[in-house]
Amino acid sequence: MKHAFLAGSLVALLATATAGAQNKPPQVQVSKTAAADLKSSDGTKIRAALDEVRLAGKTAGAPYVASIVALLDRGMTPELTTAAIDTLADLEAQPASQAIAEYMQHRSVRVRQSAVKALGKTKGPAAVRGLVKGLSDQDGMVRGVAANALGQLKAKSAVPDLFLALDHRVNEAATSIGMLCDPADCEKLGARIGKIPFDVASAGVEQVLFRTDVGDDTKIKLVGRIRELGTREANKFLAETTKKWPQKGSARIKQALDQAVQATGGGS
Amino acid sequence: MKKLVLLAVVLACGGGQTHPNLFSTNWSDDNGASIAAVMAKIGSAKPAVGADVAVGVAGNSDKVVGVALAGGQPWTFAHAVDVRPTIAGSVVVGEGGGELFCLDATSGRRIWSRQVGPMKMRGAGDDGKTTVVTLSGNEGGSVLLAIDRDGSVARQIESDKGLGVPAVLAGYAFVPWSRQYVSVLDLSSGEEAARILLRGKVSHAFAEAGSLFFGEQDLFRLDDKITGGSRNQATHLALPQRELPGTPALMGPGEEPLGPVALALDKTRIYAMPTAGDPIGFAGDRFYGTYFRLAMAFDAKTTKLAWVHDEPVDLVGGAAGPSTFVLCDESGKVLVLDAATGGVERELSLGAPIKSCAAQADGLAGAAAQPVPPLADQISAALTNRDSEMVSGQRLLLRELATLDDESVTKTLVAITSNPLTAPILLADGRRALAARRSGAKYMLDALAHHYDFLHDVLLTPPVGPMAQALAAMKNKQAAPLLAAHLLDPADSDGDVKQAAAALVEIGDASEAPSLQQFLALYHAAAESEDVANAVVSAGQALLAYGGPAGRKAVDAVLADPMTLEMVKGRLTAVEQQADAQKAQSKTTPPAPKK
Question: Is the ipTM of this complex over 0.90?
Fold first, then answer.
């Protein structure tokens, strides 16, 4: 009965959380028993406590991070493991990154998928190490999420691995490279235009073009690379980029884009 | 009517009459009396050494090509080819377009040709003066022709029996038939001068090594013991029994004409040359087997594999010589290999790709051969051929490889079992062989250092399980940290993880405890297969053995955890109890008295 009530409450809480705006944290209090439940060996209690902590949000849930990490260290069923990892992800608990990274070598692909998603949120050096490892995972989803997360985490040190991943058709790596590359690396990305699918390459180039920490020369070279393709999809990309180009953005780039759009207008 | 036409075709050529009483089954065993008489008449006459040549069917089965094995330019004879040419002594006899033709074996020059209509040649023999040919006749019957060098038919004999491949010596034709008889026909009279009854399948008569032989799978020699043929006392040579891929034969049924194009049976053949001396044996103590692109030589006494040679294209024919083995491949290449080592003595060309081949190396003298790598390396090279057609042959070679003690064998087995392109059946064999190795640990350790790595194109995990078994049996402690790392590699198969954990019980030490504890924690409640559950139990066993108090604590925690899988809990409890009992026993057992 208690469980039924608890489940009902959770459904209501989840509904509230979903309905609420993302920037409006749900006002959920963690029950007094949660701490003890997380230290118990009762799977049902642990699961309920994890859900409570998760819904309580980053601040209210922070005190429970250590207990959840301890659960991961102890080891649980795959279902509870993924629940614990998901909870730590929602709490964006950087101290948990190391424990979660250990699960990047779990035999269950579901667990590894949870872990790689979580590391993108928990951040920190341990997360970056785990994500770089994830680029070599057997599972394509793990590789893709890892590549994407490394860009989000601004893990510049991972750029060489991201290039390797891109060359192994981990397409998400292109966007991350575009977010992280220095001029030389951006040029290396440009050199792949025409060699990898255009939508993959352009996703990376777009990131570079709209960055403020990359010089005009690098960007102009990339526009030139796209222009050289002369294809219809190149023209479409250049035209859309021109439309999105900020009014206060570089006039040189704008000019280069305009000229490139014009030059590729008859593309096939 | 058809019979009349056939007769007309042949008789138009002249020659003697037929003898309806020949090849009669109404025959009483004369205990060798008749053949003894023929042997007396033959006296010391022996078959001359045949021409050493290779002959192939080329083009659109519209030309015969040949080359002398001693070297020289290949020759070509343009003619339709419906039946595979055969080499008999110093001539080549073939048939196509309704015409039988005889060529000089070394030059390809036409010696004679005769119209034979729809009949198909089965085989031929030649003694330097006369060529005897058997052809298919009407309704399963046969025609035997004895043709002189000028092309005239000296004797023509018809029979309703299926006659096999004949031989000729000193005016007598030796004609196998009914799979057990060899009728000896006096070509001057056309009468059956003798009959040999042999206790073995007989459909071929042939001259080789200066003697006449009869047989199909086993061989019988024409010598003074042939008189005891019906009593199983003839000089007899059986092929050693041994496993060969494709269950190849020494010779096919002699009553069946061979088509111009080599079939799979022609590519999976046994070759051997019997000796003329006593006791009878195989020349060079070798017999050979081909399997598509592989040629293998075996010791005739022990049947052990002596060497392997692999070619890029299929082998379609060949011949065993006194000290050589000759092979023709589909490209028209002819190789003369040293019987002892398999080293290439000569490489010749028929000048064109071929569809089939016949060779004769009756008197071919050996020459200096190219050096060959050790047998293990020869096998390794043959195993790298990725053609799925080769798998049966490769499985045999793999088994042969596994019997060798050479450390490099382990290296080869590791390479085969780590290669994603290895055929699954070969992979399974390779893993079994690797698990049984007791040498070459360094190659295993090198392999264990590798893990699945998508970004670096390592897409197949090393054969961790078999190597774990082998290294544990070798008590190789260097392997322990490497195996511990594989314990935590999700790309390794469940079976490999199980073996890695089991090996760590044997060869691990305290330095592996952290990995074992981590494994125990990750999977005591999450093992998704029996193999992984067993690995958890082994990890616990290892921790109890050398993990110290922390290891014991980790095991106890797992046993106390309600989430621990029942199977793991049950077995681990038993393991712990056993460990405790052993510990208690060692405490109570008094130390051995000092000597």
Answer: no
